[in-house]
Design brief:
The structure is a single chain. The protein is 44% helix and 11% strand. The protein contains ten helices and six strands. The chain has a six-stranded mixed β-sheet, sandwiched between helices. The protein binds iron/sulfur cluster. Iron/sulfur cluster binds at residues 46, 49-52, 54-55, 61, 119-121, 133, 136-137.
């Protein structure tokens, strides 16, 4: 019997072969399963992943959370200590700031949006995830985004921005304007952990979020 994990892996093989950026199109697992891929399918695919060294130190995989039909998805770089312990994204100090942005600037709730990271396991000592770790984990995020199909993605910080836009241009030059991830608009902005250390930069993130708010007609 074909499982969601088998289908997803088959889809990955196909996509690697054809080199397209959209992972789950009409000929992907949707067609194979005769039903739309769900976030539960992707979660089952991640399962007990040990594809990269980050699995060694994790307590929990931090898959992501929020609305499966979110119009807006936030993508950070990876779980911290609080997130690793609870298995939930953005729940520490930086997460609380993100919640305030969602509620106070965008007039939404965390349940209205979806929140995920580039890597799903905590890098040791909160270091940045390395390029090979990001590459190994990216198919999961790509699958999540393909299921959700948001109208706007906000990348928080350099790691998320560089991995989704496939660039090394400094975040300070990328933020403040929309880019494209496939057909989806993508706004890079500073990570809220950076804002905790550099509160003077909050104004720029506020401006970026106003552009997102306008793009979504909120
Ligand atoms: S970070 Fe991603 S690829 Fe690496 S072990 Fe965790 S789930 Fe797997």
């Amino acid at each position: 019997m074909t499982t969601p994990k088998d289908s997803a892996e088959k889809a990955l093989e196909v996509e690697r072969f054809f080199g397209t950026e959209i992972l789950f199109g009409a000929a992907g697992p949707e067609a194979a399963q005769k039903r739309p891929m769900t976030l539960e399918d992707v979660r089952a695919w991640v399962d007990d992943c040990k594809k990269c060294r980050l699995h060694e130190g994790r307590t929990n995989i931090v898959f992501g959370e929020g609305s499966p039909s979110a119009r807006l998805v936030f993508v950070g770089e990876g779980p911290g200590a609080d997130e690793d312990r609870e298995g939930r994204p953005f729940i520490g100090r930086a997460g609380k700031m993100l919640t305030r942005i969602i509620e106070n600037v965008l007039n939404l709730t965390r349940e209205d949006v979806y929140i995920a990271n580039i890597v799903k396991c905590r890098p040791p000592g909160n270091r940045n995830p390395q390029a090979d770790e990001c590459a190994m984990c990216m198919p999961y995020l790509t699958a999540q985004l393909e299921v959700i199909r948001p109208e706007v993605i906000v990348t928080l910080g350099s790691v998320a921005t560089h991995n989704l836009l496939n660039t090394k241009t400094p975040i300070g030059r990328l933020r403040g304007t929309f880019h494209q991830w496939g057909n989806t608009r993508l706004m890079p902005t500073y990570h809220t952990a950076y804002l905790l250390r550099n509160p003077a930069e909050k104004r720029k993130v506020y401006d970026d979020m106003l552009m997102v708010k306008d793009a979504l007609g909120l």
